[in-house]
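Protocol check, entry for the methods section draft. Step 1: assemble the input record (protein sequence plus ligand SMILES). Step 2: submit for complex structure prediction. Step 3: store the structure tokens unaltered in the notebook. Ligand used here: S-adenosylmethionine. Step 1 record:
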Amino acid sequence: MKRGSEMSKTVNNTTVKAPRLISLFSGCGGLDLGFKNAGFDLVWANDFDSDAQAVYSLNLGEIDRRDILSVGEDEIPDGDILTAGFPCQPFSNAGNRKGVHDSRGMLYKECLRIIRNKMPKVIVFENVRGLLSTKYVDGRNLADVIVEDLSTMNDVGYDVVHRLLNASDYGVPQNRHRVFFIGVRKDLEISFKFPPKIPKHNLTLGNILNIPSNVPNQVDWAFSPQAMDMVTHIPEGGSWKDVPYEHLAPRFKKIRDNMKKYRSPNFYRRFSRNEICGTITASAQPENCGIIHPTQNRRFSIREIARIQTFPDTFQFIDDSAKDITAMYKVIGNAVPVQLANIIATAIMDQVFEGDCCQ
Ligand SMILES: C[S@@+](CC[C@H](N)C(=O)[O-])C[C@H]1O[C@@H](n2cnc3c(N)ncnc32)[C@H](O)[C@@H]1O
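Step 3, stored output:
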């Protein structure tokens, strides 16, 4: 699939080109698919992870494979909108919270470098909730720094709004909190409004786990024997708290011995068919996400987590080897749910680009 497809449509008898999207930190393409389905033209995407690249190119087209640090601004085509879900590990609540002191945190600066050169009409940043409590090197809140950096960019600046969204408020069968920053170039004089929440209809696991057998990628990453010993003692809707003490792995016994000190963590959550699933993470470990099937003693399959992340069944993943299978959990867990991305993309299309010819 070649880039620069020059998508277009006809409005009032005039042909208008689709807004061109520059995608940084594209991953396997969850965010990009949501934007593509809303009518954006993916003109350039980049990611240095070979697993993400393989899935992206299989489904969405070409992707630049370099480390973004080595990509010159002039090598990137112009665009009307730039999206960036810059790496979240340094900001993650589960991570070490080095935040912007971590070199990956500084990848935010790479976004600024490219925005300064391109000055697209719209900027979309997506990140984990932990970003909101991360301090910048000078002690300011990172979220305030982002708003200020963008609002003063190149003397034109962006009007920036940001909000913490729960994906399940936008039709995604998953409670997943992510913060979105939307910046609209100030000369357009548009103040972006986040789309309203939609009712949570049919989002429980029972609604999405019935997958026809001809849908591909229905393989799962086996639990270790120690994890499996715990899983078999957890009922539907339960957690590690249901596991008899003698079946706990040693590190869990230590925590069980002093639940108050460890604040009673909810490891090995096994969501029931009547519940909305918890966040699917890149590591897919039962300690930190609801990855256990409600009624079968196994992890969710690749296709099941893809459904929880609202990838369509036609989106293809790669499961030729055990290494591929663990890699798919990583790229899917890293993705923005397609449906959430699509709702945000549609709001941007309606509020900023509708009827506009993007030259
Ligand atoms: C949170 S994921 C993005 C997921 C994506 N938005 C989606 O919806 O599928 C962040 C991505 O940044 C990529 N990345 C991290 N550092 C990078 C770098 N220096 N250059 C290029 N890509 C990088 C990672 O490989 C990872 O796929």
